[in-house]
Amino acid sequence: QVHIVESGGGLVQPGGSLRLSCTATGFSFSDSAMSWYRRAPGKERELVGFIAFNGRSATYAETVNGRFTISRDNDKNAVYLQMNRLKPEDTGVYYCSRPPYWGQGTQVTVSS
User: Are 19 and 83 in contact (CB under 8 A)?
Assistant: First the structure.
């Protein structure tokens, strides 16, 4: 049975940083690319970025490129999303995914 669990969300001021974590079990994690998505209030879910199975490359949405970094630790079945220089428009629920599997999401709120 697949379990994907995100953590690390919270309230942060604009310009601040936050690090999200995701742990996954029930599938071959070290053979899988992993993705982060988010859903802003009133909007469709959008791709934030994804990382290759071996962690050697990552691709980001234009809206976060240069501010967010995805990394992974295959020994821990974990993937991370480091978010810097956060903006109010980064507010939303962040999801970790290895489609078709999804976590429950973690709320990120960027507000002063």
Answer: yes
Note the helical H segments in 5-111: none
Instruction: Count Cβ atoms within 10 A of the Cβ of residue 89 and give its class: 0-12 exposed, 13-18 middle, 19 or more buried.
Output: exposed
Q: Of 103, 94, 108, which is closest to residue 45 (Cα–Cα)?
A: 94
One digit per residue, pLDDT tens: the chain, 112 residues? 999 999 999 999 999 999 999 999 999 999 999 999 999 999 999 999 999 999 999 999 999 999 999 999 999 999 999 999 999 999 999 999 998 999 999 999 999 9
**Helix or strand (DSSP H, E) at 3:** strand 3-7
Phi, psi of 90 (to 5 degrees): -85, -5
- Establish whether the linkage from the previous residue to 41 is cis, with ω within 30° of 0: no
CA dihedral 63, 69, 74, 75 (to 10 degrees): -150
